[in-house]
Amino acid sequence: MSKLPCGVVRDLLPSYIDGLTNEETDALIEEHAASCAECRRMIDSLREPEVNSREEETAEIDFLKKNKRKTVKTAVAAACIAAAVAAVAVLLKLFVIGRDAGYEKLRSFVDVDGSRLFVTAEAADKDRAVSRLDVSEKEGDVVVSVRTVVKSFLHRGKLERTFEAPSEIGSVTVNGRRVYENGGYTAAFSEAMKQEVIANWKRYLDLPEIERTLWSTMPGYVYRSFETWQDASDFVGFNIGNPLENDPDFVGVDHRDYPGQVKPYTAHLAWYGDRSGDISYVSLEKFYKYGDLSVQFCAEPVCAKQGVDDGLVPICSTFGDDIPEGIVTSRDSGEHFSAANVIFMSDGVRYCIRIIDNVGSDPSVLEAAIETIRAVAEEMMK
């Protein structure tokens, strides 16, 4: 029989359940519970909430762990998406959208003919390319906006555009810099030509020494092609005459068919400058066929002989003493050709007309051509 009565056991049960009783008391309670079904039921009843509580606590902990893992996964996914969006935005900015290039970071040229504008632009940095070239006009003032991006397969180099204004163009501004105004090119445009020369020198000087020997022209020379002689003359800003244009005996050569040329044009402008970009030589050139002979017509506006309106900068040559008096004729020849040069001045322009016989014609043919050209020169000098 139990040593403790039921009343005493039931008073001790809360402490027993909480583990506050000593071993001897625990033994007496457990001995009593073994023979008393009612007290044993009470002990089981008191112990059941603790089990349930632990189960609930465990379930809550598992829930929190699951939510934590889910939250971490969501945060990681969100971070990855944000990083991907940022990366796409950066790539779009670098390779597609680009940025407005400062005028000094462009090599741009404009050709104005009444209401028509032709503009071409490329980045001065060889690692960048033009992505957009927009043209707008208001009351004769044309604004050109150029954006550049990192060069890639999407955008490889320069862009060009022809724009027809509703009326005669009065001015042209490229990325904030006025380059054309009141019928002439401004200092900014002259500066663009200077930058072209500097870039040409840099490309040459960056080459290994052995590759410089393969450079196709003298460093510092820059070329610009035109469809007609008049376009080239307008580009320079002077009205440079060319009587061969209207002479049916002289047939202009389309450079699509001219040996060694691949670009379709009939006239081009060449200019030369030193490493600092100072331009000392400018020449408009066009090739003709005169029977079996080739004729190269060159016109070089001389700065010292040109009058310049305020605010406009001429594109011209700074010749020293190499300005002819009257008509000067010279001859030269090589293994497979013979040639003659007729040089003279007219209206501030130094003309050099070179006649080349590379088919072995009778010498009298070349002499007759020289007399024809001298007659042209005499007429121009009147």
- Can you tell me the residue ranges where pLDDT is under 50 for at least 5 consecutive residues? 256-264, 308-313
Structural class, judged by helices and strands?
A: alpha+beta
Rg to the nearest angstrom? 45 Å
Distance N to C terminus: 153 Å
Oligomer: single chain
The biggest beta sheet reads: 8 strands, antiparallel
> What proportion of the residues is helical, as a percent range?
25-40%
What does this structure look like?
The chain is 36% helix and 30% strand. Mean pLDDT is 78; it is low at 256-264 and 308-313. Strands 10, 11, 12, 13, 14, 15, 16 and 17 form an 8-stranded antiparallel sheet that branches. Strands 1, 4, 5, 7, 8 and 9 form a 6-stranded mixed sheet that branches. A 3-stranded antiparallel sheet has the order 2-3-6. It has helices spanning 6-17, 23-35, 37-97, 187-205, 209-212, 229-236, 363-381, and strands spanning 99-100, 106-113, 116-123, 128-138, 141-150, 159-164, 171-174, 177-181, 184-185, 221-226, 251-252, 267-273, 279-290, 293-301, 328-333, 338-346, 349-357. The radius of gyration is 45 Å and the shape is rod-shaped. It is an alpha+beta fold and 382 residues long. It has 3 domains: 6-77; 98-181, no CATH class; 186-381, no CATH class. The protein contains 7 helices and 17 strands.
